[in-house]
Design goal:
binds 2-acetamido-2-deoxy-beta-D-glucopyranose; 1 helix; 46% strand; 4-stranded antiparallel beta sheet; single chain; mainly beta; 30 strands
């Protein structure tokens, strides 16, 4: 494997930067699915067994917190605003969102829904504006929004109906993205579903995705928005067959109309998270490994066979981190 890799480097990849993944911490008994990187020094991660990790030195060290009163809860998503302020989302029964303003030492409940069947999947923020998406209680996605960084939430009526057996994955907190049109002063969301059907859902449209679907374990897990244009990448696949490379990624151009295309070289298996690093570069990870694309998602190169659930780039800065099972948090290093 290693020889083969060097051979490729000599042949033509030599000019391109090489990527390496450095493990920063591992061995804490939590499965991390929430990751939010404020800047090159501050990052937060959240996971199962009530665990939250925060680093204020770019991942050199982490402070692990077990959220009091929520020791058995699974925090599938986190949104961090600074070294002191963040919110975390616990999925179900009851679905709650907690907020800290003291670096994770104490948490206040800012959202709670006790309805049976309620299951939150992901949050996304754009400045102080945020949305949370949950599985359908009727025939519509559950949506709530905040305008004050998560202090108050109000339900939003979805215009899009979804089918029986169609729902959302809570695998990396990245199946919904929020765009703010500052001129029109309105917000648009892009969410992706899976299960019986896998769709791209927007405020007032729905598009069937050309991805694996039809069963509970299949469909879209994550959507990334290109930072410089309207392109998007969606990843997913079948989490019960995580080496399968069919129907696990679709490229979306969103110009006058929405257009789908498939990659030439797909990511190397089921992927639970995708994120853009710049206009052309994107990173995708899942239980069977990590891939990078330097051509907007057309071709993906496997850079690790280690399992990661979530990856994220600093909101302000260039650092890129990945996280997953057994409390593993790593950093993507680029060597020229
Ligand atoms: C880790 O957590 C799981 C799930 O709660 C538990 O079953 C297991 O015993 C824990 N392992 C250790 C080493 O604490
Ligand atoms: C990151 O944000 C924190 C505020 O939470 C700030 O104190 C720190 O200086 C910032 N670091 C960098 C590298 O921007």
């Amino acid at each position: 494997m290693r020889l083969f890799f060097c051979f490729l480097l000599l042949l033509g990849c030599g000019a391109a930067a090489a990527q390496k993944i450095n493990v920063l911490t591992s061995g804490t008994n939590t499965s991390i699915r929430g990751l939010s990187v404020v800047n090159d020094s501050v990052l937060w991660a959240s996971g199962s067994r009530g665990m939250v990790a925060v680093s204020v030195n770019g991942g050199q060290s982490f402070a692990w917190k077990k959220v009091k009163g929520y020791e058995q809860r699974d925090f599938r998503d986190v949104e961090a605003f600074s070294a002191s302020t963040a919110i975390i989302m616990a999925i179900a029964e009851p679905a709650v969102i907690l907020k800290t303003t003291d670096g994770g030492n104490s948490w206040q409940k800012v959202f709670e829904v006790n309805t049976k069947g309620m299951f939150l999947d992901a949050m996304d923020f754009n400045g102080n504006f945020g949305v949370v998406i949950g599985d359908p209680l009727t025939n519509k996605p559950y949506l709530a929004a905040t305008e004050d960084s998560g202090n108050h939430w109000h339900p939003v009526e979805s215009e899009m109906k979804i089918d029986t057996g169609e729902a959302f994955f809570a695998s990396s907190g990245t199946n919904i993205k929020l765009k703010i049109d500052t001129v029109e002063r309105r917000y648009e969301y892009y969410a992706v579903s899976g299960g019986k059907f896998s769709n791209l859902l927007t405020n007032n449209n729905k598009y069937l995705l050309p991805l694996q679907q039809g069963e509970q374990s299949k469909g879209a897990n994550s959507i990334a928005l290109n930072p410089e244009n309207n392109d998007m990448i969606v990843v997913g696949g079948d989490f019960t067959d995580d080496q399968d490379t069919t129907g696990n990624c679709v490229l979306i151009s969103n110009g006058l109309s929405v257009h789908f295309s498939m990659p030439h070289t797909s990511p190397h298996g089921y992927r639970s998270c995708v994120t853009f690093l710049d206009k052309n570069t994107a990173l995708a990870c899942g239980t069977s490994g990590v891939d990078i694309s330097t051509d907007g998602g057309k071709n993906w190169r496997l850079i690790s066979t280690n399992s990661y659930h979530v990856c994220a780039k600093a909101k302000k800065g260039n650092s890129v981190f990945l996280a997953g099972k057994e409390g593993r948090i790593s950093r993507l290093e680029v060597q020229d």
